[in-house]
Structures are given as C-alpha cells and as structure tokens.
Amino acid sequence: MDSYKQEITAIAARLVVEEGLDFGAAKRRAAKQLGAGQRGGLPDNQELELAVEEYIAIFCADTQPEELQALRELGLSWMQRLERFRPHIAGAVWHGTATRHTDIYLQLFCDDSKAAEIALIDLGIRFEARSVPGFQGGMVDALSVHVRCPALQENIGLHLLVYDLDDLRGALQPDTRGRSPRGNTDALRRLVENGAL
C-alpha cells in the first residue's frame, strides 16, 4: 500500500472508531482532509477493517471490550423482541470492532416487508424509514430508531434492514476472511455469554 493510501486508511480508521462513521463516509472524509478527490487511492473495506482492528488494539484496548459487550447485549435484546422476523446481526457489533460510537445493524428476513413497520408501530416505537443499499446490491427498507443503552448511558442508533425471506438463503456465505457476515440470535447469545471479542 502506498503512503498516501496508508494515510487515508489511518485517518479513516480513526473516524470509524472515534466518530462511528461507516466505512464509505470515513474514506471519503479522510480523502477530503488530505485534499484528494473521491476517485482512486482509497483503501478497500478489508484494508480499512484491519486498520480499525489495529487502531482499537492500540488506542481503545481498555474500554472497547466493555463497550462491545454492552452493544451486543442491546442488540440481543432487540433480536429477541423481533424474533418472528428472523433477525441477524451484522457489521461491527457482530465482527467485534464496535465501540460506543457504533450503530447496531439488524437484518430482518420477512414474509411481508411491511410487517416489521407494523410491529414497531404496535410497540409504540417511533422510527425513520428510508431505503439503503442491501447486501445483494439492491435497495432495501431501513427502519432506524434511537434506543437507550443503559450500560453505556447513551442513545445508540439501531437500524433494521428489511429483506425478503428468500434472501436468507444467500445471507450466510463467508466473507473474504472466511467469517460469517452475520449471525442469528443464538449465535449472538453465545458471543454475549462467552464475552467473546
């Protein structure tokens, strides 16, 4: 990796950990800080994820495990509430690189795409609905709420991405590092009980 790309990667990793930016936004902001355009020279997501892991090991090793555990416990409580929608957790909370600034991403696999919205309305939960790119490239509905995390004494962004039930078949293919890209309620419960990073 050339030095310019390394510098962007380092800045982007800091932005992900310290400000909770997603990878794309962190890379763009890092490039802008260095006065670069948005084309070429940006790290791929795997390079950035390795840099995030390194940043956490150096600067957050004393606080990050507790923060990750709190976010996983919060995610698990929501997965249990939404169990009928076959929830799977993804992203930094699942992969172990989350900090108190990280949002929780749950993927719901539904027979009826509006059922999750109706469930939130029935529970009296206010949410913002929008469309975002899904893991297969197409647009999916995202229902975003802010929930209180008692362990961190902060509000955390919780994003429920709504997929068709048929999408679950291809959802568990390993990523480039051989890891499952998402986990169901039982898988997250095991991580929480073991305190695994």
Q: Secondary-structure map with pairings?
A:
Elements: H1 3-19, H2 23-33, H3 45-59, H4 64-81, E1 88-90, H5 92-95, E2 104-110, H6 115-122, E3 128-133, E4 139-149, E5 154-164, E6 182-184, H7 185-194
Parallel strand pairs: 2-5
Antiparallel strand pairs: 1-2, 1-6, 3-4, 4-5
Descriptive keywords:
single chain, 197 residues, alpha+beta, Beta Polymerase, domain 2, 2 domains, six-stranded mixed beta sheet, 7 helices, 6 strands, 42% helix, globular
Secondary-structure element series: HHHHEHEHEEEEH
Report the structural category: alpha+beta
| Mean pLDDT across every amino acid position | 92
Shape: globular
Number of helices: 7
Residue runs with pLDDT of under 50 for 5 or more positions? none
Describe the structure.
This protein is α+β, with helices and mostly antiparallel strands and 197 residues long. Helices cover 42% and strands 21% of the residues. It is globular. The protein has helices spanning 3-19, 23-33, 45-59, 64-81, 92-95, 115-122, 185-194; strands spanning 88-90, 104-110, 128-133, 139-149, 154-164, 182-184. A hairpin with a 5-residue loop joins strand 3 (128-133) and strand 4 (139-149). Strands 3-4-5-2-1-6 form a six-stranded mixed beta sheet. It is built from seven helices and six strands. The chain has two domains: 3-59, no CATH class; 64-194, Beta Polymerase, domain 2, CATH 3.30.460.
